[in-house]
Design goal:
mainly alpha; two-stranded antiparallel sheet; 51 helices
């Protein structure tokens, strides 16, 4: 193989590269860095990648081979898509050698080179279709491989390696190449793969399936790994598309897949390492069945009976205890196959006769309490909750979206069965006869037959009695009732169609009695809690108090006996959170708050974590109901959080992070509850302000403990605090700043030390992708407002705090920390954050100008702000995107305040001068400003402050441009003309906005009187709509089944919407538009006289060859009659 590479012309020899690769795996860090640097420098050497490829196959030692393959994979990931990475001839040679070597290596080198091959194949074969010789080469390799030609080890290639290559080139086609197209044709490359590779490979697949049948008792065969790769390849090929060649031979593949699934073993545990490939093969075969049903119905409807028989037979097998997790996954997929079949048109006819047997023999036994459940409850409570009782408080995605274990899949299938028409039983026949004499009711089919939930599921579950308190957990009474409650939780969609009386009867007879027992089984009680949360969307209002009392009792239930009751308390908290999110709110909020606070005081951190999550949800949902209790609650919770804050610089535990989140939610609830001035004669507002003092003290104490801790001897801790919970902590700090009115209160609350620590923390902010910065910007705005009310001593001058001394962190003034954060957001944050940062820059600029050393500070700020904003502005695709607006306005403020300094910054990176000495960047920004100031701009200027700023900036810029003689037609002159036209438009717009403000105020009063009648009319319309909708519901016999064409059209439409959304998000952020920007003293300026003076001095020059629309001239003269003579053409 080495002879294939001519390294005679290579400046760096293969031996040298091999030595560097060995050194990268050495123990000495300096040598590793040096070797890595040498390799990086050598990557431009001719045939460098080919040399790495040779070493990965023929290196002197395994470590060197692995290092070569790893470096090659990373090199290709970074550079292969670049055409300049290597010459065309070298690329062709490398590709061919990569395939040759891939077919011979093994172990971890094979895995690494397969990934390298994928990178090349995706770019050259899938995207550019520039590798026509690849498929023929793989077909030849298959024919010459060890398993096909029978030569064994003497064969040139390994069949397993060849199939890894086949799987790799299929993988890019598992999804639609262009999802925005409704019916995308099968890619030519995939058709070629199907015809030239997969169809011939079926003979090998058939042979290996026969091996599986012959080795059922052993549970493994010699070539199970090859069979698994074949299954994966076939699955990937049909996942989205159906190649014609495979469609013609689909029956043969399907027949072998059915034989394969008949060999599934569930009556004994297969946990030996050599049996794992077979387990994964069975799993993949079931996934193929699910994919065929959901994606390729027109090809497989005739195979549905066979698939139904296979899945039912698999689910009816006796199951061994302690099955391997992959066997559990196989059972789960068997349930999914039945569910997918049931959702098809002919599915009900195939499955309805088996509903009863499925429920009794497959679904319910899966839902019953098992010994494995009890063991997991004891060993790993969190995993038990995640798998069996998921809630919105967990990170689990939910059952229907993530069906990974049999119980979850069985629940999903039960829900589908319950909402289907009932099976043709004797009971159903009697109901049909009775229904013929009256109109079919809700939940009935067009022939009057009731749903399976009504005829089969509920009667079946009703046979299991409530277990008495003394019943042992291992008794059938407890195990069965555990399963019954789990089953009720899967009937949410069915119960939504039932009357509230039926739901009430179910809860009162099957759930509530558990809460009145002395000591019910904790396993059953946890399921009851979860069930109440699952039924949140259909709970009757009259049971509100009973439901909340039951869940609060469970939330505070102590441990009884040797079994932990934490899952009981966690499931109760999850159910309460779900009820709140579903707008099923309690009649009395105080008991719920008291229970959450009591939970937060529990000694065990895990218990307090659950309670704090619940408290945050209660605060967000309760709003005005919770607000009166916020001062007392925050004081109670603050102490518990402080007790768990670790010494610096250790990261905070989850309990502290969730505690900050809960207190931040309470702070927002309190702030939003500010009463009107005239409410209750002003007493309400006075009481609220008194509460603000209490709340501010509590928040300050919490932040001091987090950021300004002291050691036991009373001295300050010198370590810098960790950057934990900055978003929530910023919410608390913003509240402290908002409620601070003078310097005395600021000193008491230690506002300045807190602000300086916080400013240092946010200056290192790098979590823009998490989009949790809104509270930070809010705190910045509050800090600036406080500085205006009560100037802060160290706002602009740094002070070395004990909490920061002795650390490597630079000591910054408060202002410097804020500016660093804001400029970082402008330069690289997502658009909405960049908008918020731009809004803050206006406030910072005007606040700093009032300082004693304001002029010098303003120069520094202008320098940093203009640099950051202009770089982001130039990086935009065009000046008309939404994000351009805030960037242009920041430079406008800087230019109006300090025009000379702003122009110098704009020209720092651009020495090029155009026309009469004006910098290119100044004219670029002027053009962007003119575009933004046009009346028809989108997004344009809508607020008075924005328009006034642009008028002032346009005036300042025009005066600068007109200060020198410019030739007509020059770039500077054209920009000046555009700015002049925009100046006229924005001046008129400003006048109109100012005149309409008073009119709008009076209109608001009038509109309040007419709201009632309009609402009543809308209500009438809604009633008509609801009546017509109900008529439509009555007239529709059954739900419309989405066709394949409709599914593909919906899929493509969603993909197009996501593409547009991605484009808008990249340069959008207009949700932040419409908020006032700070003008400072500029707000007092009336630019009307300056505009008229400029028109008088320069209008004639600029109007040369500039055609103004008649509408603009008419509007301007109408608002400013004295300008008629000035604008005469």
């Amino acid at each position: 193989m080495e002879a294939m590479v001519n390294l005679a012309t290579v400046g760096v020899g293969k031996d040298q590269i091999a030595r560097w690769l060995s050194e990268t795996a050495g123990p000495h860090e300096a040598a590793v860095r040096a070797a890595t640097a040498h390799l990086e420098a050598a990557r431009t050497v001719p045939k460098f990648a080919l040399c790495l490829l040779v070493l990965s196959a023929g290196g002197d030692e395994k470590g060197q081979r692995v290092a070569a393959a790893t470096y090659l994979k990373n090199y290709l990931r970074n550079h292969w898509s670049e055409d300049s990475a290597m010459p065309a001839v070298e690329r062709l040679e490398f590709r061919n050698q990569l395939v040759e070597i891939l077919l011979r290596v093994d172990g971890i080198v094979l895995k690494l080179l397969a990934e390298a091959f994928r990178l090349v194949a995706v770019n050259d074969f899938a995207r550019k279709t520039s590798w026509p010789e690849l498929v023929p080469a793989l077909r030849t390799a298959i024919q010459n491989s060890d398993l096909v030609n029978g030569a064994g080890e003497a064969s040139e290639f390994k069949t397993f390696n060849v199939l890894i290559g086949v799987q790799t080139i299929i993988k890019p086609f598992q999804y639609f190449m262009d999802p925005t197209v409704a019916r995308e044709p099968v890619p030519e490359q995939l058709e070629l793969i199907g015809k030239e590779l997969l169809v011939p490979l079926h003979s090998i697949f058939h042979h290996l399936v026969q091996q599986v049948a012959a080795s059922k008792d052993e549970g493994a065969a010699a070539h199970d790994n090859i069979l698994l790769v074949l299954c994966k390849s076939f699955h990937l090929a049909i996942k989205s598309h159906m190649p014609v060649s495979l469609a013609l031979y689909l029956g043969q593949w399907f027949q072998d897949i059915m034989v394969l699934l008949q060999m599934v073993v569930l009556d004994k545990t297969l946990d030996a390492p050599h049996q794992y490939h077979r387990l994964k093969t069975w799993k993949r075969a079931l996934q193929i069945c699910c994919n065929l049903i959901t994606r390729h119905r027109k090809y497989v409807d005739k195979y549905l009976p066979s698939m139904s028989h296979m899945a039912l037979k698999l689910l009816s097998q006796n199951r061994s205890k302690g099955l391997h997790p992959m066997q559990e996954r196989i059972i789960s997929l068997a349930f999914d196959v039945v569910s997918n079949i049931l959702e098809t048109g002919p599915g009900w006819r195939l499955m309805a006769p088996h509903f009863s047997n499925l429920l009794e023999s497959a679904i319910f036994p899966t839902l019953r309490l098992s010994e494995e459940d009890m063991a997991e409850w004891e060993e790993d409570e969190d995993e038990y909750l995640r798998k069996n009782l998921p809630s919105d408080m967990d990170e689990a995605s939910g059952w229907k979206e993530d069906l990974l274990i049999p119980r979850q899949s069985a629940i999903n299938l039960l829900g589908l069965i319950a909402t289907s028409k009932g099976p043709p039983t004797t009971v159903a026949a009697k109901k049909v006869a009775a229904m013929k004499r009256k109109k079919a009711g809700k939940g009935k089919g067009k022939d009057g037959q009731g749903t399976a939930g009504e005829l089969l599921v509920l009667p079946f579950l009703s046979q299991f009695p409530l277990p008495p308190p003394e019943a042992a957990s291992a008794s059938d009474l407890v195990k069965n009732y555990y399963g019954a409650l789990m089953a009720y939780g899967g009937l949410t969609q069915f119960l939504k169609t039932q009357s509230p009386d039926k739901v009430s009867f179910l809860l009162q007879t099957r759930v509530f009695p558990l809460y009145t027992m002395g000591t019910p089984s904790p396993y059953v009680l946890a399921n009851a809690n979860w069930l109440l949360g699952e039924l949140a969307a259909c709970l009757p209002e009259e049971l509100n108090e009973d439901i909340y009392n039951a869940l609060l009792k469970a939330l505070l239930a102590p441990n009884v006996g040797d079994v932990s009751w934490r899952p009981v308390r966690a499931s109760a908290a999850g159910a309460l959170s779900t009820l709140l999110q579903e707008e099923y709110k309690p009649v009395q909020w105080l008991p719920l708050l008291q229970a959450a606070v009591a939970g937060a005081r529990m000694v065990e951190e895990g218990e307090a974590t659950i309670a704090l999550q619940l408290l945050a949800n209660v605060a967000e949902a309760g709003e005005d109901h919770v607000a009166p209790h916020v001062p007392a609650i925050t004081a109670a919770v603050q102490g518990e959080i402080c007790r768990h804050i670790p010494p610096h610089p250790e990261p905070w535990p989850q309990m502290v992070e969730l505690g900050f989140s809960a207190v931040a939610s309470l702070a927002q609830t309190w702030d939003s509850a500010e009463p009107e001035e005239d409410e209750d004669g002003g007493k309400a507002l006075e009481n609220w302000k008194m509460g603000c003092i209490t709340v501010a003290n509590t928040f300050s104490e919490l932040l001091q403990r987090a950021w300004l801790p002291t050691s036991p001897d009373g001295s300050s801790v010198v370590a810098a605090p960790p950057p934990s919970c900055l978003n929530d902590a910023s919410t608390l700090l913003a509240a402290v700043l908002r409620y601070t009115n003078d310097s005395t209160i600021a000193a008491t609350l230690k506002v300045e030390p807190l602000l300086q620590v916080w400013a240092n923390l946010i200056s290192e902010w790098s979590a823009w992708e998490e989009e949790e910065d809104e509270s930070v910007f809010e705190a910045i705005e509050e800090a600036i407002l406080l500085h205006g009310r009560s100037p802060l001593r160290h706002f602009t001058v740094a002070d070395v705090l004990p909490a920061l001394s002795g650390t490597s962190a630079p000591t910054r003034s408060i202002l410097e920390g804020l500016v660093t954060f804001v400029t970082s957001a402008i330069e690289g944050a997502y658009p909405a954050a960049a908008w918020r940062a731009c809004r803050c820059t206006h406030a910072i600029l005007h606040a700093s100008s009032l300082a004693f050393e304001g002029e010098e500070i303003s120069k520094v700020l202008v320098n940093r702000f203009v640099q950051a904003t202009f770089r982001r502005l130039k990086a935009l695709s065009r000046f008309t995107v939404p994000l351009a607006k805030p960037l242009v306005l920041v430079i406008a403020t800087c230019y109006v305040c300090l025009p000379k300094e702003t122009e110098q910054v704009l020209n720092l990176e651009d020495d090029k001068k155009v026309d009469e000495g004006h910098g290119e960047n100044l004219l670029l920004w002027g053009e962007a400003l003119a575009i933004l100031s046009e009346t028809e701009a989108d997004p344009g200027l809508s607020l008075e402050c924005e328009i006034k700023l642009c008028v002032l900036a346009l005036l300042k810029l025009l005066e600068r441009l007109m200060s020198k003689e410019m030739a007509e037609g020059s770039k500077g002159f054209l920009v000046a003309q555009h700015c002049f036209k925009s100046l006229l438009e924005s001046t008129v717009d400003l006048k109109e906005v100012q005149e309409s403000s008073s009119i709008d105020d009076s209109d608001d009063d009038d509109s309040d009187d007419s709201d009632g009648s309009e609402d009543s009319d809308e209500d009438d319309d809604d009633d008509d709509d609801s009546n017509s909708n109900s008529d439509d519901d009555d007239s529709s016999d059954e739900e419309h089944e989405e066709t394949e064409d409709e599914f593909l059209a919906r899929y493509a439409r969603t993909a197009r919407e996501l593409d547009l959304q991605a484009i808008e998000e990249a340069e959008g952020g207009q949700d932040e538009d419409g908020q006032d920007i700070e003008l400072g003293v500029l707000g007092l300026v009336n630019p009307e006289c300056q505009v008229m003076t400029f028109i008088k001095d320069h209008g004639k020059t600029l109007l040369t060859k500039l055609s103004l629309s008649k509408d603009l001239v008419s509007r301007f003269i109408d608002k400013f009659p004295g300008s008629k003579q000035l604008l005469s053409q």
